[in-house]
NAD-dependent epimerase/dehydratase domain-containing protein
Amino acid sequence: MAADPSSQVLVTGAGGFVGQALVRALAQHCRVTATDRSGLEFADLVGVTAVPGDLDDPALLAALTAAPFDAIVHLATVPGGAAEADPAPAARVNVAASMALIDAAAAHGNRPRVLFASSIAVFGDPLPAYVDDATAARPMLRYGAHKAMIEEWIATMTRRGAIRGLSLRLPGIVARPLGPSGMKSAFLSNLFHALKAGEPISLPVSTGASCWLLSLRGLIAQLCQALDLPADPADARLNLPAQRVILRDLVAEVARQTGHDPALMDYEPDPAIEAAFGRQPPLATPRADALGLRHDGSLGALVAQALADL
Amino acid sequence: MAADPSSQVLVTGAGGFVGQALVRALAQHCRVTATDRSGLEFADLVGVTAVPGDLDDPALLAALTAAPFDAIVHLATVPGGAAEADPAPAARVNVAASMALIDAAAAHGNRPRVLFASSIAVFGDPLPAYVDDATAARPMLRYGAHKAMIEEWIATMTRRGAIRGLSLRLPGIVARPLGPSGMKSAFLSNLFHALKAGEPISLPVSTGASCWLLSLRGLIAQLCQALDLPADPADARLNLPAQRVILRDLVAEVARQTGHDPALMDYEPDPAIEAAFGRQPPLATPRADALGLRHDGSLGALVAQALADL
């Protein structure tokens, strides 16, 4: 797929943090249609068609899916914090529009590959003492429930042979850009920006908080590999490999690589944030490992990759 | 709940086969608001408020949920055959409107009891050799996926403490009225009508087909009991007790009780219908059994109950 220059790939949420990087990676190998409400800055790329608009707009969806795609990477989402603040539009984008997109893409009969950016938010909190491929979804956030619901839709449509779907549970991806993201886990990225700038920052978790993390480059590599994996109608869900990082170790490594003082970090744990993002237990991903997907390899490599993209 | 005359209960899909019987049963004990697009014939009942309209209409939903309910029984649905024939409106009612109803009901902060009429369609086909409370959802029909998705929403909202939810997986309910129901399993009811009238009928399954069945009266009793069960945030899904009936035995018993010839039945198995509705394996429902829910007890009792309501 990623290596076939005639392949047509649709990327939703293409103006976002992950979407922009994915479009740039895919454009080296195939033809990309990129859609988002904003952020479609791909004029420098050959073979990328930008289609601005809201996925919740039936006219946009109809225009987007008028011709078949070989693959779709569905990243567009209203994230966790934003979905809690304004539930109705979040449900329209995260659930209704996602179902409509999948149905429209399937209607051409070409069984497109569909990668869905799900989230470890499907596991909710508190997490069990150990998470692996058999751990059941048990969301607590609206966002997590939305993701679990679309996982079910994709699994059903894959069993029916309408698509070749795969829902990928993304861990925390670092480091996202500064600014309002609507994500409750934004502090994990903001600490990179603060340390690089030598500025103090208050973190809403404890120094012992444990988080599953993957760099943006690590994620893009996994997404490109996943496009070419064979579809498995028996299990259309996959936990992505990630490193389990203790916050004090992460801060120390970012400080070391940026040459700043880890004492710039102040810790004011918020029990809800700590419960949702700071108590992630050991994670095993044997299915993804067997498929050849890899995390960044070491804390040093994760931090270096993340800092390189700031 | 069902025994408290000041309780306010909302029934959606109240004009349907199950809804009409449930409203009549509840009206003996509490105050009922009944909503549906049609079929709200409750002028003879005291304490029933009929609110006609489409649950997919935001104005109707806002009017319905302006005041809190102690309990909601959400029966309204676009059934399996109709959902396959016209997917988009089915998704709006079965998923989007169902989410909006639950959110609106929860917004009063009174943690209403919410019973959701899910379906054994969440199990899809082929079924494993044995089904019990641990069997995973694996839908094949759009309708089954819709039900599994709303089960997830109700489970999440129950874990959050917003509602006291319970999704009940309904087996085949007999005998539904004749006429277009949009249900692929309509043949299970139509055979009662044909034998009672002494008319021939062709069934789309084999004589050895096995089906999980419950009479309407048996279901109404289970629903009324379920209204008063304590909510279990750890598991908001429940398989209802049902009898596993072999079609030739069912036909023989209906023929015996109606005094007609079982040879009126002709069998022309449709592989898809047989797979979806005619290969239901032994079913164990220990959780529901422990909660005191019961099926009709015997094939004779099931058939007698069903014939009494024709």
User: Anything to note?
Assistant: The interface with chain A takes residues 87-88, 91-92, 95-96, 99-100, 103, 124, 137-140, 142, 144-145, 148-149, 152-153, 155-157, 159-160 of chain B (CB under 8 Å). The longest strand of chain B covers residues 113-119. Residues 8-172+213-239 of chain B form a domain with the Rossmann fold fold (CATH 3.40.50.720).
